[in-house]
Amino acid sequence: MPISLEPLELAVQVPYHFRCPISLELMRDPVTVCTGQTYDRPSIESWVATGNSTCPVTRTPLTDFTFIPNHTLRRLIQDWCVSNRAFGVERIPTPKQPAEPSLIRSLLNQSSSNSAPSNIRISALRKLRSFARDSERNRSLIASHNVCFVLLNIVFDFSHSKRFGSDELNHEALALLVFFPLCEVECNSVAYDSDKISYLVRLLFHPSLDVRVNSAAMIEIVAAGTRSSELRARISNVDEIYDGVIDILKNPIAFPRALKIGIKALFALCLVKETRHKAVAAGAPAVLVDRLADFEKCDAERALATVELLCRIPVGIAAFAEHALTVPLLVKIILKISDRATEYATGALLALCSESELCQSDAVAAGVLTQLLLLVQSDCTERAKRKAQLLLKLLRDSWPQDSTGNSDDFACSIVPF
Asked: Which residue ranges does the record assign to the U-box domain (predicted)?
């Protein structure tokens, strides 16, 4: 991300020719276009991608869309950053150059060639994965070569492992495939084939954490990418799929990708109501509560949405109610993370307190009264407010006397249901 220039201008003036004419920010990857003007690569690529075909500065037509790295200017910018380190300026890293289309085609041909030796194919896939990690531009370039079709054939080519006694080629193809979205037809083709789903489930228990996480990522992509409720149910109904996904969530916080992929996969599976009991039986409630504080914002929202989904079935409510930290954590989350997180946490509390007097007393003891009264007056979503109002009415008899005495002003805000 470009550094912010506003703080810098208080102590040091950024040279004009170091700024991108489009973003007006310090250039990190300066490139020169056919008109001779220099821009930061992300800015000019975005300019062209939105349909512009002229040079932003000169307004003359771009006859060539090749962007030539301006190494001299980049080194000058790096030297300037170093000389102004005392003012809080950090040296920009040397950018990695975008992959060449001809190289991408060559690597894809090597990786998909059944006649090529396994080590050559695996090496080609690893190089492609390295390019895919580097930038969105590289991923777009790779995707433009029908990469998903090629990789799906490699991932599920079980004959290769039988011939050579190794799944390494399949695993490398899977590691690259999860960088790209699949179309619905591709998702359906995987979901419909029980052998393919069974293979992915087996990989959830592979000794390598990377293989397990990539398998969970693929399961999530397929489950989320098909519109067929029947196919989603077929995926979530496979034996041991919840055990494998939940085991990924148990990994230490040192593996953030495992947490991110694990909760995405678990949420996608729990969207199928008929198989949510399997998630509960596999221990999802305890893991969700125990790891809730470790998730980043977006993942925390997804985790809370999963909690609310599991609270829609009796066995889920019972499992969450047994965990001593469930109610206090849900109360604490209200108004802390985001509007969505607040809505999901309130919905889960409503479900728990509707079925358990112990949860009601735990919620009151954790300070839910204050949280809910603040919520109904906030700018949160209307759905969150409705859930809060229902929960306030439900807990009315559980409020301490010293709390209810000062709460009459809020009574009018609680709509009847």
From this structure: 13-87
Q: Which has the minimum average pLDDT: 28-32, 99-103, 134-138, 217-221?
A: 134-138
Tokens 């910018």 belong to residue: 77
Name the one residue in this structure whose structure tokens are 């906030």.
Answer: 378
Boundary of a domain, candidates 169, 189, 216: 169
For residue 63, count other CB atoms closer than 10 A to its CB.
Answer: 9
Neighbours of 287 (CB within 10 A): 21
Q: Do 108 and 24 fall within a single domain?
A: no
Instruction: Give the whole-angstrom CA distance, residue 153 versus residue 112.
Output: 8
Mean predicted confidence (pLDDT) in 141-170: 83
What is the domain extent for residue 386? 324-417
pLDDT in tens, 343-362: 999 999 999 998 888 898 89
d(CA 143, CA 26): 30
| 3 state DSSP class of 78 | helix
Instruction: Provide the greatest CA pair distance for the chain.
Output: 81
Contact 39, 21 (CB under 8 A): yes
Q: Compute the average pLDDT of residues 328-336.
A: 91
Q: Which two tokens stand for residue 280?
A: 């509960």
CA 368 to each of CA 138, 230, 266, 304, 381: distance values in angstroms, whole numbers, following the listed order: 49, 40, 28, 17, 18
Asked if 368 contacts 349 with a C-beta cutoff of 8 angstroms, the reply is: yes
Using the predicted structure, report yes or no on whether residue 57 has a pLDDT greater than 90.
Answer: yes
Domain count of the fold of the chain: 3
List the strands of the sheet with 38-40, edge to edge.
Answer: 38-40, 30-32, 68-69
Cα separation of 43 and 271, whole Å?
A: 39
pLDDT at 237: 92
CATH of the domain at 60: 3.30.40.10
Q: Residue 265 pLDDT more than 80?
A: yes
**Which of these, 417, 382, 314, lies nearest to 392 by C-alpha position?**
417
For residue 345, the tally of other CB atoms under 10 A from its CB is 30
